[in-house]
């Protein structure tokens, strides 16, 4: 017998020899005892691979658990497939009209279901019991490649029209389906090898639908607590209803609108809805006679600056005189800025702000005094005074934007009745299809990649590298205070990813294949491939999207 071919595989800096036919799962099993959590994927020379794949050459492997973003995404996606299989088993396929995974909520996914069944907790308990039965059986999650036309026909026959319509726009001749037993579905991304990996989940009735509870990436072997923001949920639910009213709830419907030359009407309709919402907020502020400070906070790339300008325009229409105040001008001098655990300046913590000076200045303004406002010189790292004097008249209001604006410790001296708090975020509800959601963070990341490239000269690689740090700052300094807002403004635009596509795609293709950021760049490119591109010609100059793609009428 001839000697079997051997491949040289580097894992954790050491080299090993494996014969032809060895799967990545075989290799992962040999190292599993060294990991606290299940290995779900491997990174093979910069490319993510599922564990069923076989070695094809010498390579370097990185083993991935749910403590890393691709691993947690795989866990979530696989659990959604498990949920769907169990749901159809319990309800009966003929009884199910639609199961739609809409958006994330507090370490879980909000799901709506329609059909000839009663969606109550006893029903969900039966679905969860079926899920756990399938987990105990470690049923293989089988990947199958079929012709795209066959997939379109299959999903049309199963009345999953969102999927058949989505795939009808696909250029590729084949698609991958994933199956648990006799239930198969189309998913955007990788899957776990079998159901035995999916141990941590729960189903909980919630607000006309239910929550599929999941672990958190920081501790993927334990179910995370469910602590929803009801204000954010209502904003997401309202956005979903608005999308349905405009006839665009998923990418396939968006592509249909674009391909049938209906995008201009959609853009104008959505922008009109957004302008009305801003006008409603301005009307409410004007009606509260004691409001002198409009406090605006939100995560990165939410469109805070353009929103502030548009709100100011609406406030003027109600007879008020708005003045913009940037809280960045109240940074402590660089030498007094606290440092993080890595010894780097922590500009996002509250300790980086001169809270006392801010409150003194705002209180003096409130009392009718004239105050010289500071400017922070980011080159020298020192706060300066350049003769910017301000006195508040009876019609004057301050529009203040900053990450700590909803934190009561930042505005502790200001009377509650003098403040109106706005939380702004890009809460997208446009999903790929009913079972493949678009995280709101993806929309914000795409916005930031384009803006960073256009205004700062940053590469997509640099922006992707910084993004986890940005997200960590949001988790600590913004999200905990979102429910204290008087109103939540959703800056997501149904059409924006189609517009961003031609801007961002070339930047993502520029991410080097041998870089750590390439995996994320490739995922985003796959995501963008579902969208038809949409020219920016009809995007109004006042649109929040102009803050990121340029061409707007505001200085941002």
How does this model look, in words?
By secondary structure, the protein is an alpha/beta fold. It folds into three domains: 6-65, Beta-grasp domain (Ubiquitin-like (UB roll)), CATH 3.10.20; 71-228, 2-Layer Sandwich (Threonyl-tRNA Synthetase, Chain A, domain 2), CATH 3.30.980.10; 232-549, 3-Layer(aba) Sandwich (Rossmann fold), CATH 3.40.50. The chain has helices at residues 24-31, 69-91, 121-136, 148-157, 161-167, 230-246, 251-259, 263-287, 304-317, 355-366, 440-456, 460-477, 496-509, 518-528, 546-549, and strands at 6-11, 14-19, 39-44, 47-50, 59-65, 96-104, 108-115, 141-147, 174-180, 183-186, 202-206, 209-213, 215-216, 219-223, 293-297, 321-326, 371-377, 382-390, 396-401, 419-425, 487-490. Strands 2-1-5-3-4 form a five-stranded mixed β-sheet, with helices on both faces. A five-stranded parallel β-sheet has the order 16-19-15-20-21. α11 crosses α13 (496-509). The longest helix has 25 residues, at 263-287. The protein starts with 5 loop residues before the first strand and ends in a 7-residue tail after the last helix.
Features:
five-stranded parallel beta sheet, 3 domains, 556 residues, Rossmann fold, five-stranded mixed beta sheet, Ubiquitin-like (UB roll), Threonyl-tRNA Synthetase, Chain A, domain 2, alpha/beta, 15 helices
